[in-house]
Design goal:
- The longest helix has 20 residues, at about 85-100.
- The chain is of the alpha+beta class.
- A 4-stranded mixed β-sheet has the order 4-3-5-6, covered by helices on one side. It has a two-stranded antiparallel ribbon with strand order 1-2.
- The protein has helices at about 5-20, 25-30, 40-60, 70-80, 85-100, 125-140, 150-165, 200-205; strands spanning about 110, 120, 175, 180-185, 195, 215-220.
- It starts with a helix and ends in a 10-residue tail after the last strand.
Length: about 230
């Protein structure tokens, strides 16, 4: 069962940690490259803010984004702003999302996200939590995959393993951190490949943040994962 109230609290905590960390930067640091190819830290912060507003649209029954071009243009427009404006925008957009999520509603209803993806409203707070945590890492300011909350890492690993389950280009794969086990890839009676690693390295590989070189692979080469 998805506990949306718990996830909203966890999201609030993650947002506050992000704001505190970003508040220690300066304008020059915001303009520097992030860990995401082609994006400055300003791009990442602009995306975090505009994603919050997009999820307000989702909660209120509107399209998440007008279209892909508008989404990209908004990020490019907002990326060069100085640090105080970036902080204010991330904080205020997060508050708009918090208020939208506080409106009494049917959390079991189906909502539409980007590219025709649908999910229950109850999963939206976790999806936003993912945005905040992983993009905090992407800023490259000292917060790493190893710093992520253990609950978050386990749940996001399970979510991404599920996302690739049944994908024809991913071989039947068993994932393990030595304690827990997940399965992904094509359906099969038994996995072809077993991938073992630390929770952070498994998540990093699944989320496209690490190349998987720290993982141990048995039964074949490390599977190539499709883009998220």
């Amino acid at each position: 069962m998805i506990d949306h109230a718990h996830d909203l609290e966890s999201l609030q905590d993650a947002t506050e940690r992000l704001l505190v960390a970003v508040g220690k930067l300066d304008n020059a640091s915001v303009a520097e490259p992030s860990l995401l190819p082609g994006w400055s830290r300003g791009h990442v912060l602009a995306h975090i803010a505009r994603n919050a507003d997009a999820l307000v649209n989702v909660f209120e029954g509107r399209p998440m984004y007008a279209d892909a071009a508008v989404r990209e243009a908004d990020i490019e427009r907002d990326a060069p702003r100085p640090l105080p404006e970036q902080l204010t925008d991330v904080r205020e957009s997060a508050e708009r999302l918090r208020r939208a999520a506080a409106v009494p509603a049917d959390w079991s209803r189906t909502v539409e996200l980007r590219n025709g993806v649908t999910d229950t409203a109850a999963r939206v707070p976790f999806r936003r939590w993912v945005e905040v945590e992983l993009h905090h890492v992407d800023l490259g300011i000292g917060y790493t995959l190893e710093d992520l909350p253990a609950e978050f890492t386990e749940r996001e690993t399970a979510f991404l393993a599920e996302r690739f389950t049944g994908h024809p280009e991913v071989p039947p794969t068993r994932l393990t951190d030595g304690t827990r086990v997940w399965h992904t890839g094509r359906e099969a009676d038994a996995p072809e490949v077993t991938v073992t690693g630390s929770p952070a390295d498994l998540l990093g590989w699944l989320a496209g943040r690490r190349d998987g070189s720290a993982l141990t692979v048995a039964g074949g080469p490390l599977p190539a994962l499709p883009p998220l």
